[in-house]
Design goal:
With 497 residues, the protein is an alpha+beta fold. The chain has 4 domains: 181 residues, Peptidoglycan recognition protein-like (Lysozyme-like, 3-Layer(aba) Sandwich), CATH 3.40.80.10; 162 residues, Lysozyme, CATH 1.10.530; 41 residues, no CATH class; 63 residues, SH3 Domains (SH3 type barrels, Roll). The chain has 13 helices and 25 strands. The relative contact order is 0.07. Bound molecules: zinc ion. The site of zinc ion has 3 residues, from loops.
C-alpha cells in the first residue's frame, strides 16, 4: 500500500530527524505527550533543529491543529524504540507539563479523528489497546488491525502521561466504533467487555466497599496490605472487565468505558500455574528481568490476587523486587517499598497512594496483622457519620477508651459504626466548700482520696470544711479534702451540715 499523509494537516514543517523510509508497514499508532501546551509552529521549530535528535510523524497543538513533521512513509525518532517507530505512526500531543500530563479536550478529540483517518488510509478497520506491554509487543496484528503502543514501554518515562494512558482503551473503542460504523457489528473480540448498558450506578462508597471486600478476602491469601492494593487499583483503574471494575473506572474518573483491557502476557507452565518473565525498569532507568508467579486474569477479582502475588513474589535475580512487603502492616512503609522497588516512575506516586488511602479510609480493609489475628479497629469520633471528627483509630480497645475519656463528647465505635464505649457524663459537681460533722473518734485522715493513700492520723471529733470531693478506693460517697491541708477523709463517716 502506498504511503499517504493526513488531509487534516494545517501546518507542515518537515524535520531532518528521521531514518528515511520505514522498513515495516504501518500497524501501530503511538500517541505521546509533548509536556507543554505548545503550538504547531513551536514544535515544528524544535524538530527542525538537527541537535534536537527527535521528531514525530504528527503533532496536535494546544488548539487541536494538526501538524506534519515526518511523512508517514518515513520512520520518525519518537518512541525510544527502533522496532516500534519503524511500524508506528507517532503523534505528539500538546499536554500539561506535570503528571498526569492532561490534554485539552480539543486535543483529545482531534487525536480520535486523526487516528480514524490514519486507520482508514492504511486499510485498518480496528484500533486495539491491550494494556499490556508483553502481549502487545508479541502480538502479530491481523489484517485490518492497528495496535496502540506507548512510549513508557520503551523508556523510563511516563509518556503519554497517566491522563492519556487511562484513556487508551477509550481511544481504541471510539476509533474502532467510527471505523466500523455506528451499527454494532459485533466483530470485535472485545465486545464482551463493553457492557456499558448493564452498568449499575453504584456510589463511590458502594464501590469502595465491594472492592474492599475482595481485597480483604484476597489479602488473606496473599498477605499484602489491602489498603495499598486497593489504592493502587483506584489509581490505576483501567483494567478488568467485570461490572465492578467498570463501575470503579467510571467513578474514579479514569475512563467512561472499557474495551480491550485484558491483562495477559502470562504463559502456562504446563503444570499448575502461569508464569511471567518481564523486562522492567529499575528506578535508575536500567532494565532488569523480573520473574513472578502469575495466574491468568480473567476478571478483576482474580487480577487483584494476582497483583498481590506479583508484588510479593516478583524477583530480580534471586532477590525479591519489593523486599519487606510481606507482613508489612504500615501502609506508608509498604507504599515506599513499592515505589523504591521501581513499580512507578512518577515522583509523586507515594503521596498519591497515601492520599487515596487516607481519603477513603482504606486501612479499614487491612483486616489482619502479621500474626494472622483479626484486627478490630476502634475509632474515636463524635459520631460515626462525622468521620472528620476522628481522633484516632486503635487496635486496642483500652487505648481507644482512654482517648475518648480524654476528649469530651467523643465515643468509641467498632468497625461497623456501633458505639462500643461512651464515657459516662461527669457527675454533677458537688458544691464546695461545705461543712461536715465528724462524730467518731477513729476516722483516718489520708494523704490522698482513697484507702490506698497513706494514713496521717485520726481526725478529732468536730466540724470541718471540705474544699473538694473525689471518688476513690474505700469510700462509697467520696473523699473530702480538708481545708487545713492535712489530707482527705472518707465522707461515709461524716455528716454534711
Ligand atoms: Zn513520548
Amino acid at each position: 500500500m502506498a504511503y499517504t499523509n493526513s488531509s487534516m494537516v494545517v501546518y507542515k514543517k518537515l524535520s531532518p530527524n528521521h531514518s528515511g523510509q520505514r522498513t515495516h508497514s504501518i500497524d501501530r499508532i503511538t500517541p505521546h505527550c509533548v509536556v507543554g501546551q505548545c503550538t504547531a509552529e513551536g514544535l515544528g521549530e524544535w524538530f527542525e533543529k538537527k541537535s534536537t535528535q527527535a521528531s514525530s510523524n504528527y503533532g496536535i497543538d494546544r488548539d487541536g491543529r494538526v501538524a506534519l513533521y515526518v511523512e508517514e512513509k518515513n520512520r520518525s525518532w519518537c518512541s525510544s524504540s527502533n522496532s516500534n517507530d519503524q511500524r508506528a505512526i507517532t503523534i505528539e500531543c500538546a499536554s500539561d507539563t506535570t503528571e498526569p500530563y492532561a490534554f485539552r479536550d480539543v486535543v483529545y478529540q482531534t487525536l480520535i479523528k486523526l487516528c480514524i483517518d490514519i486507520c482508514k488510509r492504511n486499510g485498518k478497520n480496528k484500533l486495539i489497546w491491550f494494556g499490556d506491554k508483553d502481549k502487545t509487543l508479541n502480538y502479530p496484528p491481523k489484517s485490518g488491525e492497528m495496535i496502540l503502543t506507548v512510549h513508557r514501554w520503551f523508556a523510563n518515562k511516563s509518556c503519554p502521561g497517566n491522563w492519556m494512558y487511562a484513556r487508551m482503551g477509550d481511544l481504541a473503542e471510539k476509533v474502532t466504533k467510527a471505523l466500523q460504523g455506528s451499527s454494532d457489528s459485533g466483530g470485535g473480540s472485545t465486545a464482551k467487555g463493553t457492557q456499558a448498558s448493564v452498568l449499575k450506578n453504584l456510589s463511590e462508597a458502594d464501590v469502595i466497599k465491594k472492592v474492599g471486600a475482595l481485597f480483604t478476602a484476597n489479602q488473606k491469601k496473599s498477605g499484602i496490605l489491602a489498603s495499598v492494593s486497593l489504592a493502587q487499583f483506584i489509581l490505576e483503574s483501567g483494567y478488568g472487565k467485570s461490572e465492578l471494575a467498570q463501575n470503579a473506572n467510571n467513578i474514579f474518573g479514569m475512563k467512561c468505558s472499557l474495551s480491550g483491557n485484558s491483562w495477559s502476557g502470562s504463559s502456562w507452565d504446563g503444570k499448575s500455574k502461569y508464569t511471567k518473565k518481564t523486562q522492567e525498569q529499575n528506578p535508575d532507568g536500567s532494565m532488569v528481568t523480573i520473574t513472578a508467579d502469575f495466574r491468568k486474569y480473567p476478571c478483576i477479582e482474580d487480577s487483584i490476587a494476582d497483583h498481590s502475588a506479583y508484588l510479593l513474589g516478583a524477583k530480580n535475580g534471586s532477590k525479591l523486587r519489593y523486599d519487606g512487603l510481606k507482613g508489612c502492616t504500615d501502609y506508608k512503609k509498604a507504599v515506599q517499598i513499592i515505589k523504591d522497588g521501581g513499580y512507578a516512575t512518577s515522583l509523586t506516586y507515594v503521596e498519591k497512594l497515601i492520599s487515596i488511602i487516607e481519603r477513603w479510609n482504606l486501612t479499614q480493609y487491612d483486616a489482619k496483622d502479621s500474626g494472622g489475628e483479626v484486627i478490630r479497629w476502634y475509632r474515636v469520633r463524635k459520631s460515626w457519620a462525622d468521620a472528620k471528627s476522628q481522633k484516632g483509630a486503635y487496635k486496642i480497645l483500652k487505648n481507644a477508651k482512654k482517648c475518648a475519656d480524654q476528649n469530651l463528647g467523643y465515643k468509641v465505635f467498632d468497625a461497623d459504626g456501633k458505639v462500643v464505649y461512651e464515657p459516662k457524663a461527669a457527675e454533677p459537681a458537688v458544691k464546695v466548700p461545705f461543712l461536715v460533722k465528724v462524730s467518731i473518734s477513729d476516722l483516718n485522715i489520708r494523704t490522698g482520696p482513697g484507702t490506698n493513700y497513706g494514713r496521717v492520723q485520726f481526725i478529732p471529733i468536730g466540724v470541718y470544711t471540705i474544699m473538694e470531693v473525689r471518688t476513690g478506693q474505700g469510700s462509697s460517697v467520696g473523699w473530702g479534702r480538708l481545708k487545713s491541708g492535712v489530707g482527705w477523709i472518707s465522707l461515709d463517716y461524716a455528716r454534711k451540715l
